[in-house]
C-alpha cells in the first residue's frame, strides 16, 4: 500500500496514462483502424494545443492550491481585444502584447482579490468568468470584427512537419509544456509552488513568499488561456465572442483526471496534458466508434468523478499510513 | 548581559484589544536549553511567534548578540540564525525529505532574480549528511515526509535547522501527539543541541519533558514571566504553583 501511495505521489499521471493507452487500443479496434490514421490524428493534434495550454495553466494553479474558473472567458477576451486593436490598425505583435497584458491583469486581479480578502478562488474566478465574458461582448460591440488578411499564420496555425502532421500551434504547445514542466520539477520556484499548495503553513513558516507564488500562478494561468484562445481564433479565422464556453470545467477535469489534487500540492504538467488528450480522444473516438456523440459529456463526467474518488481514497490511505508510524 | 544570544526587552503585543504580552523581558544565554512553560493563552506562543517572525511586537526591543534587530518576516529570523520547529507545520508531507530540507533555501546551479535550476545532486548528498548528523536513520532522502513517523519528522526538522547553522532553535511543542518512544527520541535531540553549541528553546505542556532536557525553566502566565529559575533550583511543584 505504501508503494502505491508513493507511486501516486511521484507519478500522479500514471493512472491516466494507462487509461489513455487502453482507450486508444479500444477506439482503434472499434473504428476499424480509422482512429489512428493520419487524417484523424492531424485533426486531434490541431485542436489539442488550444485546450492543452489552458489545462497546463489550470494544473499549475491547482498545484499551488488555487483554482481558476475564468479561463474560458479569458480564452475569448484576449483574441477579441487583439482583433479590435488590429481593426484599428495596430500591428499584430503590438496587439499580441496588449492582449497578453490584459490576461496578466485579469490573472493578477484574480489572485490579488483571492489572497488579499482571503476568499476562495472558486468564487473570485466565478465572478471573473462573468466579467471577462461580458467584456468580450462589450469590446466587440456585438459584432465580431473582421480579422485583417495579413496575419502571421505561418507562426501559429500553418501545417508543418513530416506529412504536414502538426500545426505550428502544436510546437508552441510542446515548447510551453516542456518549459512549464521543467519549471515545476527542476527549479526552486517549482518547489515553492508545490510547498505552497502542499502545506501552506509550512511553506509560509519556511519563508516562502506564498502570496507572490500564488499570484504568479494566477497570472501564468490567465496568460496561457488567452494565448490558447488566440490560437483558436487564428485557426478558425474569426474572433467569436462565445468561444471557450465550458472550457474552464474541461480544463479542471483534465487536471484532475491527470492526477492533480483538488487540495493542491500534487500534480504534474504531464498529467494535465494526458487528461486533455484523454478528453480529446474520447470526444473523437466515440464518434468514430459510431456511438451517439451525446455520450461525450457523460464520459467526461464519469471520468472526473472516478478520478476524484480515487484521489480522495488515496489521501485517506496516505493519512492511515502516517498514523502507523 | 554579556553572554546573552537573544535578549528581549519590555515586549508588548495586543491582539484586537487583548493584551497578550505585557512587557516581557528575557535573556537567552548562549548554549543553554531553556524550557518555556505556561497554560494555553499564557503568551508563550505569542513570544515565539514574534521571535520567529510570524508576528511583530507592538512595543519593545529584540537584541541578537547585543545588536538591536527587526524581525518582520520568518526569513529575517532565519537569516539571524533563529530556526523554529513547530508541532505540525514545518514539513510538507507530499514532498521528499531532500526537498523539505531545502524549502525556501534551495541550492541552485544558476539563477535569475532568485529563480533558478535546482542543484538536485547537492540536495541529495547534503541531506544524507544532515540526517546522519542528528543520528536519524532513514533509507533515502527521496522518501516522502508523509511516510515518516511524527518523531522522524521532528528529527528531519531539527536536521534542517542544524544544517543551516542555526544558533537558536525554538521547538514549539515538538512532542505533542507523539508516542512515548518517539517523545524520548525528540528529547534526545534537544539534549544533543548543547553538544553542537546550539541554544535551544523548548516549549511544552509537559513539565517532565522540560525538566528532562533543559537547564533553565521560564514560566509564563497571563502574558507575563512569573518564574525564571535554573532547573536545579526549582521543582515541578513550584512551577505548577505559579501557573
Automatic annotation (TrEMBL), chain A:
Keywords: Cell inner membrane, Cell membrane, Membrane, Sugar transport, Transmembrane, Transmembrane helix, Transport. Its main location: membrane. It is a multi-pass membrane protein. It is found in: Cell membrane. GO terms for cellular component: plasma membrane. InterPro entries: ABC_transp_permease. GO terms for molecular function: transmembrane transporter activity. It comes from the Bacteria. Part of the binding-protein-dependent transport system for D-xylose. Probably responsible for the translocation of the substrate across the membrane. This is Xylose transport system permease protein XylH. It comes from Mesorhizobium jarvisii.
TrEMBL record, chain B:
GO terms for molecular function: ATP binding; ATP hydrolysis activity. Residues 6-242 form the ABC transporter domain. Keywords: ATP-binding, Nucleotide-binding. InterPro entries: AAA+_ATPase, ABC_carbohydrate_import_ATPase, ABC_transporter-like_ATP-bd, P-loop_NTPase. SMART domains: AAA (SM00382). Coiled coil: none annotated. PANTHER family: CARBOHYDRATE TRANSPORT ATP-BINDING PROTEIN MG119-RELATED (PTHR43790), SUGAR ABC TRANSPORTER ATP-BINDING PROTEIN (PTHR43790:SF8). This is Sugar ABC transporter ATP-binding protein. The lineage of its organism: Bacteria, Pseudomonadati, Pseudomonadota, Alphaproteobacteria, Hyphomicrobiales.
Amino acid at each position: 500500500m505504501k508503494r502505491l501511495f508513493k507511486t501516486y505521489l511521484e507519478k500522479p499521471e500514471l493512472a491516466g496514462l494507462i487509461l489513455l493507452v487502453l482507450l486508444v487500443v479500444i477506439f482503434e479496434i472499434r473504428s476499424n483502424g480509422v482512429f489512428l490514421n493520419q487524417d484523424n490524428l492531424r485533426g486531434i493534434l490541431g485542436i489539442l494545443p488550444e485546450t492543452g495550454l489552458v489545462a497546463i495553466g489550470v494544473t499549475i494553479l491547482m498545484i499551488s492550491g488555487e483554482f481558476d474558473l475564468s479561463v474560458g472567458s479569458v480564452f475569448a477576451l484576449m483574441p477579441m481585444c487583439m482583433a479590435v486593436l488590429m481593426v484599428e490598425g495596430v500591428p499584430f505583435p503590438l496587439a499580441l502584447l496588449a492582449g497578453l497584458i490584459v490576461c496578466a491583469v485579469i490573472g493578477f486581479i484574480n489572485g490579488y482579490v483571492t489572497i488579499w480578502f482571503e476568499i476562495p478562488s472558486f468564487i473570485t474566478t466565478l465572478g471573473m468568468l462573468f466579467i471577462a465574458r461580458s467584456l468580450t461582448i462589450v469590446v466587440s460591440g456585438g459584432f465580431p470584427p473582421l480579422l485583417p488578411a495579413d496575419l502571421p499564420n505561418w507562426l501559429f496555425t500553418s501545417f508543418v512537419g513530416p506529412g504536414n502532421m502538426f500545426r505550428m500551434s502544436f510546437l508552441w504547445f510542446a515548447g510551453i509544456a516542456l518549459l512549464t514542466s521543467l519549471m515545476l520539477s527542476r527549479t526552486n520556484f517549482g518547489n515553492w509552488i508545490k510547498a505552497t499548495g502542499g502545506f501552506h503553513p509550512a511553506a509560509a513558516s519556511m519563508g516562502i513568499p506564498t502570496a507572490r507564488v500564488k499570484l504568479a500562478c494566477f497570472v501564468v494561468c490567465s496568460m496561457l488561456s488567452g494565448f490558447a484562445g488566440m490560437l483558436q481564433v487564428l485557426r478558425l479565422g474569426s474572433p467569436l465572442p462565445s468561444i471557450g464556453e465550458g472550457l474552464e470545467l474541461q480544463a479542471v477535469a483534465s487536471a484532475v483526471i491527470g492526477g492533480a489534487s483538488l487540495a493542491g500540492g500534487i500534480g504534474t504538467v504531464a498529467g494535465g496534458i494526458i487528461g486533455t488528450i484523454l478528453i480529446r480522444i474520447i470526444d473523437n473516438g466515440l464518434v468514430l466508434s459510431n456511438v451517439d456523440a451525446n455520450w461525450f459529456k457523460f464520459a467526461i463526467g464519469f471520468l472526473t468523478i472516478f478520478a476524484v474518488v480515487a484521489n480522495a481514497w488515496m489521501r485517506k490511505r496516505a493519512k492511515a499510513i502516517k498514523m502507523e508510524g | 548581559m554579556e553572554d546573552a544570544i537573544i535578549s528581549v526587552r519590555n515586549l508588548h503585543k495586543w491582539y484586537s484589544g487583548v493584551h497578550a504580552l505585557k512587557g516581557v523581558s528575557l535573556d537567552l544565554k548562549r548554549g543553554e536549553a531553556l524550557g518555556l512553560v505556561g497554560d494555553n493563552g499564557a503568551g508563550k506562543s505569542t513570544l515565539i511567534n514574534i521571535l520567529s517572525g510570524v508576528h511583530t511586537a507592538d512595543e519593545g526591543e529584540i537584541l541578537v548578540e547585543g545588536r538591536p534587530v527587526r524581525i518582520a518576516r520568518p526569513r529575517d529570523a532565519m537569516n539571524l540564525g533563529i530556526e523554529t520547529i513547530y508541532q505540525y507545520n514545518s514539513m510538507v508531507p507530499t514532498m521528499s525529505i531532500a526537498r523539505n530540507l531545502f524549502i525556501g533555501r534551495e541550492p541552485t546551479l544558476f539563477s535569475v532574480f532568485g529563480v533558478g535550476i535546482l542543484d538536485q545532486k547537492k540536495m541529495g548528498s547534503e541531506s544524507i549528511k544532515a540526517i546522519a548528523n542528528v543520528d536519524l536513520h532513514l533509507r533515502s532522502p527521496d522518501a516522502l515526509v508523509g511516510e515518516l513517523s511524527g518523531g522522524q519528522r521532528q528529527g528531519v526538522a531539527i536536521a534542517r535547522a542544524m544544517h543551516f547553522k542555526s544558533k537558536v532553535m525554538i521547538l514549539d511543542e515538538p512532542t505533542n501527539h507523539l508516542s512515548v518512544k518517539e517523545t524520548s527520541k525528540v528529547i534526545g535531540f534537544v539534549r544533543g543541541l548543547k553538544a553542537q553549541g546550539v541554544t535551544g528553546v523548548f516549549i511544552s505542556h509537559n513539565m517532565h519533558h522540560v525538566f528532562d532536557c533543559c537547564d533553565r525553566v521560564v514560566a509564563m502566565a497571563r502574558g507575563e514571566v512569573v518564574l525564571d529559575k535554573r532547573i536545579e533550583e526549582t521543582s515541578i511543584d513550584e512551577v505548577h504553583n505559579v501557573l
